[in-house]
Amino acid sequence: xxxxxxxxxxxxxxxxxxxxxxxxxxxxxxxxxxxxxxxxxxxxxxxxxxxxxxxxxxxxxxxxxxxxxxxxxxxxxxxxxxxxxxxxxxxxxxxxxxxxxxxxxxxxxxxxxxxxxxxxxxxxxxxxxxxxxxxxxxxxxxxxxxxxxxxxxxxxxxxxxxxxxxxxxxxxxxxxxxxxxxxxxxxxxxxxxxxxxxxxxxxxxxxxxxxxxxxxxxxxxxxxxxxxxxxxxxxx
Length: 236
What we know:
By secondary structure, the protein is mainly alpha-helical. The protein contains ten helices and four strands; from the N terminus they run E-E-H-H-E-H-H-H-H-E-H-H-H-H. The strands form two sheets. Strands 1-2 form a two-stranded antiparallel ribbon.
């Protein structure tokens, strides 16, 4: 029987120069591919509508004028579409639909220079075809950064934690631990409680399983008991 693969926890804690720590949730290649496909659909629709309008106007502006307009549109959609959306709104329509945004690796808003760099390097990430270089890069680092992200020092992150805490896991009451705990163990349980909203149900159950002697339960029930103990430790 094969051993199941460990689940990924993409939470990244970043400490700013001011000493304040923030948490970022980098997006993996699957959700980013979905966002790219949605953007491709938006761009294809824009091409189709613009092409139809240019074709209708060729009688007034001529074939050469229509071709020039289409070339300008192609240039903008290839190099300007993502840059403008990412700088002004933090995400393209495709990324926004998937709950993603682009930020600097420090968590700061994206700058013009970084946006231009990461999008210019799409040409390299695309090589040899279908973004294979970019995919390989995202799988080789913990923040899922493609080459453009590494050069521009940017991250694609979730706008909100990807898996909110289910109501069934919320503790109905707080109670003390049934066993004596060290200072480090108490701190670990409080941190476990704070990070529950950022994990999927499977990840919560996976992390709670080794603590069954403390919680006295498995699965969702074990998670609720640990959360209740964490609440008591936090408030005590």
